[in-house]
Design brief:
It is built from 10 helices and 6 strands; from the N terminus they run βαβαβαβαβαβααααα. 34% of the residues are buried. By secondary structure, it is α/β, with parallel strands linked by helices. It is 51% helix and 14% strand. Strands 2-1-3-4-5-6 form a 6-stranded parallel β-sheet, with helices on both faces. It starts with a strand and ends in a 6-residue tail after the last helix.
C-alpha cells in the first residue's frame, strides 16, 4: 500500500483527489495539509511514501517549492510529486531543485496520475510531457538558457520595477542589474524591458 499525503490550499481539490485515489486498491490517502506547517506535522506523523504537492499554497506563506524543500530535509523524507496547473520553466526548475521527484499537471488523465504516484514511490522520475519538453529545450545545445537570477530579474520586470528598485530587491548594484538586462535582451532577441517581459511570458519562462 502506498501512503499519500495531499498538500493543496483548496479543500475542494483535496476532496476530489481523495475520492479519485480511493478507487485504487494500492493507494491510500493518510493525511491532508493546506500549507507548510501543517504539511510538516502531518508528514511527520503519517510517514507517507508520497506527497502530492501543489505549487500555489495561497498568497501568504511559503509556496510549494519551499514546502518541498522542507519536507525533503526531514530525517525520513517522503518522495514529492508536484501536481499543479503551472508549467513555466521557472516553476519547474524551482520544484525540481527543491527535491521534487516528479512534476505532473492537474489536467493529467487519472491513469497518468495513478501511474505517476506508483513510479514516484519507486523513486522514479515522473514528468508531464510538456514539462519534459521544457527541460529538453533548456538542455539542447544552442537553445536559450536563462539563469535563475535572470528569471528573478524578468519576474520583477513584469511588475514594472526600475533599475534602482531591481537593485534593491536583488541586493546588487545598478551596474549588475544593467548587466543582467543586457544578457537577457541578447538571449531573448529584444531591446526593451517590455519586449523582454513579453518574450519571457510567451516562452513560458515566467508567468504573469
Amino acid at each position: 500500500m502506498i501512503r499519500i499525503v495531499l498538500v493543496d490550499d483548496h479543500p475542494v481539490v483535496r476532496a476530489g483527489l481523495r475520492a479519485l485515489l480511493a478507487g485504487q486498491p494500492d493507494l491510500s490517502v493518510v493525511g491532508e495539509a493546506d500549507g507548510l506547517s501543517r504539511a510538516l506535522s502531518v508528514v511527520t506523523e503519517a510517514r507517507p511514501e508520497v506527497v502530492l504537492m501543489d505549487l500555489s499554497l495561497g498568497t501568504s506563506g511559503p509556496g510549494g517549492a519551499e514546502a518541498t524543500a522542507a519536507l525533503r530535509a526531514l530525517p525520513e523524507p517522503p518522495e514529492v510529486l508536484v501536481l499543479t496547473t503551472y508549467d513555466t520553466e521557472s516553476d519547474i526548475l524551482r520544484a525540481l531543485e527543491a527535491g521534487a521527484r516528479g512534476y505532473l499537471l492537474k489536467d493529467a488523465p487519472p491513469e497518468e496520475l495513478f501511474a505517476g504516484i506508483r513510479a514516484t514511490a519507486r523513486g522514479e522520475t515522473v514528468l508531464a510531457p510538456s514539462v519534459a519538453a521544457t527541460l529538453v529545450r533548456r538542455a539542447t545545445p544552442g537553445a536559450i538558457t536563462i539563469t535563475e537570477r535572470e528569471v528573478e530579474v524578468l519576474e520583477l520586470l513584469a511588475y514594472g520595477l526600475g533599475n534602482k528598485e531591481l537593485a534593491r530587491e536583488l541586493f546588487v548594484s545598478e551596474a549588475t542589474v544593467k548587466s543582467h538586462l543586457s544578457h537577457i535582451y541578447a538571449k531573448l532577441g529584444v531591446d526593451t524591458r517590455a519586449g523582454a517581459v513579453a518574450a519571457a511570458i510567451e516562452r513560458r519562462i515566467i508567468r504573469h
